[in-house]
Design a protein that fits this description.
Length: 490
Amino acid sequence: MELRTNDSENRTLLKSIDWVTIVLYAILIVAGAVSIYAATYNFDKASMFDFSGFSGKQFMWAGLSFILGLSLLLIDRRLYEAYAYPIYGVMILLLIVTIFIAPDIKGSRSWLVFGPVSLQPAEFAKFATALALAKLFSTYGFALNSWRNYAIAGGIIILPILCIILEKETGSALVYTSLIFVLYREGMSGFVLFAALCAITYFVVVLKFATVMLMGIPMGTFIAFVIVMVLTVGMLFFYCRSFFLGRNVLLAYLGGSLLVWGLSYLGVNVNGYLFFGLMVGGTVIYLVYSMLHESVQRLLVTIGFIVASVVFMFTVDFAFNHVLQEHQQKRITVVLGIADDPRGVGYNVNQSKIAIGSGGILGKGFLNGTQTKLKYVPEQHTDFIFCTIGEEEGFVGSTAVLLVFLALILRIITIAERQHTTFGRVYCYCVASYLIFHLSINIGMVLGLCPVIGIPLPFFSYGGSSLWGFTFLLFIMLRIDADRASYGVW
């Protein structure tokens, strides 16, 4: 009787699994292994399935991934929810242990070596963090409606980030910041995303135009101050919903600007710090006074935004020169066009763009990529695997790959929205966030739009840790989704 019950449960599971996701997963894995073969092809080892070559090893990792995925599907969904916190705790402990026992590999201590096999715990901590975050949000009565709850949710995300940074693996740590979109989906104020976007804008502007002087201050700081003033007026009009305050501050800014222009016309130079100090400082004082008559909470947020923007603006230089490492500084300056280092830091990106550009519309054909075969692009089978696709398969092949990724991401979002439980929905959105971040940053790196920070292309870049990490993420999601029938949701 028990055997028949298990058979019945297995048949139900097979019917409930989202096979579209599995098919897309399989397509990406096979295409990734073939791309690795193309990127590392040489005539001495011509077999795609030679286990002494990168492609053969990747096929082996892929086969093990399918076995691993099947095993994850056979585990009861309730166990993932029940043991979410213990799994998270074990992975955090493993990350901490890695800091002390991992060998130094290219300046990073993030790989645990087990004989011929090396594994990166940061890749497996992703699914553990997603489970813990999903468990937190599924707790009865939990919502992002207090500083305490924000701190708990943020702590779950920040803890692995700190551990991975201590391993000197900044790129992998940044992946976890993508979970901010999950918090937004679950009720976090959009103002947080707005503030993050502003911070990125200030950082880029201050660095990009740091060498040009205007009114006695760096042009980047000048532009950042102008942005702060414009956003302040916008927040007063649309966030605080006070036409009176917005009009007065706007008139003050326009009047001050006309006065400075008039003085400059008469040959009187006005120091930029003095001008912006009076404008922004005067605004803060005026808004503090206005709190006696207007909405206190919204004005406090606006004042906090102004003060935080100015403080952040003046810490950019310190953070860039004293917090970031030298190679990180060079990568950022190359991407922003501040420095040109085609034979140094910018070499990988420059060669990658040449390879992709040379592919044209249809590409040079499978195994016919000259940039690839002559090894002009370093790490072309790992982080820069997409340049091989661009050169050999051209614009059409590259677009096809991106469309498959898009289909997978949209499918995951669809699965997330049909979940009947908060646990399932939050976990699915964590998977989508990780995937979107990896895809966006990796393609951005290869095209020279983002600094090179060592983010692999999911399912394509060589390595078992990344492949297994995403296999854990996807198949746990599929197992959670397969039980939607028990809630009456199909």
